[in-house]
Amino acid sequence: NALIAVIGRTYKTRKRHRRKYSTFFWFLCSLPHINIKTTNERTTNNMNNNNNKMRVSSFKEDSKFSEEKNCELCDEVDYVDPSEMMRTTDETRRRNWIESQSKYAFEGLKVLGHRGSMYHELENTRRSFQVVSEMGCDGFELDVFALKCGTLVVFHGGGGDVSPGKLDGYCNVKGNIHEYTADEVRSKIRFNPDFHGFACPSEKIRNNNDAYIPTLEEILQDAKESGVTVKIELKGPGTEKGAVELVDKLDMVDQVVFSSFKHERIAMVREMRPELNSDGTYKYKTGALFNSKVPDNFVEIALKAGATEVHFKYDTCTKERVERSHKAGLHTMVWFRGPIGMAQDLKSKYRGLGYEGEDMYRIVMATGVQAMCVNRPHILLDAAR
């Protein structure tokens, strides 16, 4: 038992001897008359002055410990789900893990701005999307609603995914965006500069002629000129046909991806546009969005809807899910919640990170995901270099 305690201490401090000490450790534990449970408890107490509980799991043939998410014995940390590393308050452990897993990041990672560059300009406005293009991002994501007159506009609003497009708070106007005409939206609706959900400085909203709700056509025309990718989330009902026809009109099929949490909407896009490229892939690209609860059969669900991409919430994207998607021929992207949602997550689950920044991005990058849609694209651009 004394020998085992010494080996345990040496294992932690002398990395180069880890393999032979580990083998000898398990040889001693296999001898008769040694209480393994008591030995492990003593070893753990000697190695952990903070009395954190550790478990030694079964030993692999290559003499390395099997993956144990909370095992602080391992300097060369095995892969764990991103949410696990986001939860840890041990900054050293997190940084070591990021460094060890950075090799798995997708080399051609695409950087997209969520609703544009919302920390620099008002979200979902022409100027916000223009800034994304100017800073060198690969593209941006936007939300689309159909107005009462049929015009498609770019807007997010309140109400979540259950009843999106609410104007309360965002604009201090009652009702939903789809209850107004294009003329009414442009002449009557103004953004609320005091709304806590806007990440940009309030002066970007007050007395700013650029702070208005744009049409989808305005944004697409700008994007066509800059050449960036546009992820169009079909947020409101009745947006599928108009969005597809507008993309056709502007000859932007190669620049656009249609997406939705309501998979019947992207299935409708596929029904309208089933054309294939010469390599057998779909000409019109669509993304199946998934929220916090990703079903086990997410690949089958995406393929059934005719999707070409799978879009995961940032803390549900794992290496295993990414690999399953790629094996099925599906491209992958992660999306981050808006400022209010991210603040809630950071306060309740990921306090150690403090804010949406480089550490969080690099943790997600280690899954091998091909694209990331984030609120701070300028930080991700630096992290991805």
Descriptive overview:
This protein has 385 residues and is α/β, with parallel strands linked by helices. It is globular and about 55 Å long. Strands 1-2-4-5-6-7-8-9 form an eight-stranded parallel barrel, surrounded by seven helices. The protein has 15 helices and nine strands. Helix 14 crosses helix 15 (377-384). The chain is 37% helix and 12% strand. Mean pLDDT is 85; it is low at 11-77.
Outline: globular
Distance between the termini: 50 Å
Structural class determined from secondary elements: alpha/beta
Biggest sheet descriptor: 8 strands, parallel, barrel
- Main β-sheet, spatial strand arrangement: 1-2-4-5-6-7-8-9
Q: From the alpha-carbon coordinates, what is the Rg to the nearest angstrom?
A: 25 Å
Query: Which stretches are low in confidence, meaning pLDDT under 50 for 5 or more residues running?
Result: 11-77
Total E-strand runs: 9
Q: Could you state the order of secondary-structure elements as H and E?
A: HHHHHEHEEHHEHEHEHEHEHHEH
Quote the average pLDDT.
Answer: 85
Strand residues, percent: 5-15%
Which range best describes the helical content: under 10%, 10-25%, 25-40%, 40-55%, 55-70% or over 70%?
25-40%
